[in-house]
């Protein structure tokens, strides 16, 4: 029962203690503030977590088919990657970096665990379509066709990926210019380009179908420091200015110095 006292009502709280109406008002306000904060936090978490994660590696393990039963190349790896960020995956030789890229690119399937791209498990996706539209791959050895010209290599990739646009050649030259290659190089055979120039063509080729994610295996491994810096600048711009998720497998400290996040892989038996 509430008593009236100086316009300040006194009643029992839920533990049976006498409390004034003012105290109740303060408590109600506090409760409301806490619940508002909780709501705000929940909305924030909802907006920042799974939405921005483009790629999630969840407890992934991989064992090659010809390996012993417990000889895993990768064991229980869990990494998250966001759009608009640049990542390095670092680890000594044999720690499974290339294996992990094969899993991410859908060339191999996890023995255990799973890979989720844009909220969908690779297990439930058409992997040809995924590789032809969502993900661009840059190899250490460039993997270009040496007797074809730079522009032909890029157009070939557009054709192989079923890109239906007019003026593929012009688009290829545009991509070459974007990665710092003059248009005059367009008709030069890849064989006659330097290592750094070939790597630029390989990056331009990986961009030919505008993928959301780019993965690169030791992309600067064969390049001098200055060229490495220039190539890294291209990757950085793709992440920070074009909102792509860029993942670079590397041994290079230069790469690790400029990325947003480094993931370390350890030998399975060292874990
Ligand atoms: N095709 C294969 N069959 C069986 N085992 C393999 C195969 N390819 C790689 N491995 C093994 O899997 C492990 C990881 O190899 P992976 O090539 O992924 O390492 P990495 O970190 O890329 O090494 P590096 O830095 O030397 O390129 C190694 O122990 C390797 O011997
Ligand atoms: Mg490797």
Can you walk me through this structure?
With 271 residues, this protein is α/β, with parallel strands linked by helices. It has 2 domains: 17-48; 87-109 and 132-270, P-loop containing nucleotide triphosphate hydrolases (Rossmann fold, 3-Layer(aba) Sandwich). It is built from 8 helices and 11 strands. The protein has helices at 21-48, 97-104, 127-134, 150-160, 168-178, 195-206, 225-240, 253-258; strands spanning 10-12, 18-20, 53-62, 74-82, 86-90, 112-117, 120-121, 135-138, 213-217, 245-250, 261-264. It has a 5-stranded parallel β-sheet. Strands 4-3-6-7 form a 4-stranded antiparallel β-sheet, covered by helices on one side. Helix 7 (225-240) links the parallel strand 9 (213-217) and strand 10. Helix 4 packs across helix 5. The longest helix has 28 residues, at 21-48. It is globular and about 50 Å long. The structure holds adenosine-5'-triphosphate and magnesium ion. The site of adenosine-5'-triphosphate (ATP) has 12 residues, from helix 2.
Keywords:
alpha/beta; disordered N terminus; 8 helices; 2 domains; 271 residues; globular; binds magnesium ion; binds adenosine-5'-triphosphate; Rossmann fold; single chain
